[in-house]
Amino acid sequence: MAGFMPAFNAGSAAIPATKVELSISCRNLVDMDVFSKSDPMVVLYIKEFGSQTFKEVGRTETINDNLNPDFAKKFIVDYFFEESQKLKFEVYDVDSASRNLREHDFLGSLECTLAQVVTEAVLRKPLQGPMKNSGAIIAVSSEEVSTCKEEVTLRFNAKKLDKKDFFGKSDPFLSFHKAMEDGSYILTYRTEVIKNTLNPTWRPFTVPVRLLCNGDYDRSIKIECWDWNSSGSHDYIGECLVTLRELSKGSSASNVFDCVNSAKQKKKKGYKNSGTIELMQCTIVQAYSFLDFVKGGMQLNCTIAIDFTASNGNPLTPTSLHYIAPYSPNQYTQALASVGEIIKDYDSDQLFPALGFGARLPPEGRVSHEFFLNGNPENPYCQGIDGVLAAYQQALHTVQLYGPTNFAPVINHVSR
């Protein structure tokens, strides 16, 4: 929890909190499809302390034709020790691409508290409805999220995998599982399926190090190899155990792993493996957040451009976005003030270039798509957002709205 504690400030108060990652799986789901199996998805809701309603946190991926799904999608929620946080998990059989849950078959739900989840190694509970005593189970496990900000890019291939298909070879994919504190493994990632081959090469993929091993390079990672079947009942080929410390050494003879099927190993004398899984690439980089960049001294430079084309309406009429109102700001003024109030804190010199386009300029009425609001052809900078607003008001009284809408000169100006 220490990695997520707020800064110490004497004389103030801070709520003790940490972030936890929730992993979900289901067993013995009700089969709602006639010619196949259900395609389950889980929706998570949370009712915060003091609230009367559940709010949707997110949805897992949909797993086709599977009554015993392990979902790779994780949910990260804030855990407050001193508050009662109610969770609701709803399971659906997905029937279309619609996000409207009423268009999918409801398979059951579970209501519990976040405290119940974090105090159990794995919280296993029966799903309630739509069929009583269906035997359907939902399992939820949790782990405190580490502060590790690294990302790892991995690429694997395999050689001489077992042939699983009667009329072909195999359609292999890999699944990656993180070791939990109780010794169990939780699915964290699946590769794509490579059709009809015993020597697949999978695409590179990038995941947070936290997702694979919670930042612990020596924590075990289980890689399982499967032969994909359209029925959802995939054939197990074999597995191996690795660590990120091993993988971080990159492609080498030490990172070629036997893909072992323990059932075949017990039955077959002289069994060595069901193929090999080889690491082709491992690249670990720091994944910086926006806050990291800001604390590191990053500046945001904002250039403002205003549309002075006649499509905005006559400034003398109340329906115009540029309406010159005596007592209230028009919509352009409101937008400039709202955005500028946020942006200005990230710009140390508080100088903002402000341009206009689509207007006729005095004195001869020349059309311009790149003019400076302050009227200074040598210097487009305005001092602060107040300076931009003043320059805008000045331009509004001196130019004529015209057209056409040509934004390219402003883009080129910023680029230069």
TrEMBL record:
* Alphabetical list of CDD domains matching this protein: C2A_Copine, C2B_Copine
Q: Which residues form the C2 domain?
A: 1-127, 132-257
Instruction: Supply the InterPro entries for this chain.
Output: C2_dom (IPR000008), C2_domain_sf (IPR035892), C2B_Copine (IPR037768), Copine (IPR045052), Copine_C (IPR010734)
| Taxonomic superkingdom | Eukaryota
Q: What is this protein called?
A: Copine-8-like
**Whose protein is this, by species?**
Priapulus caudatus
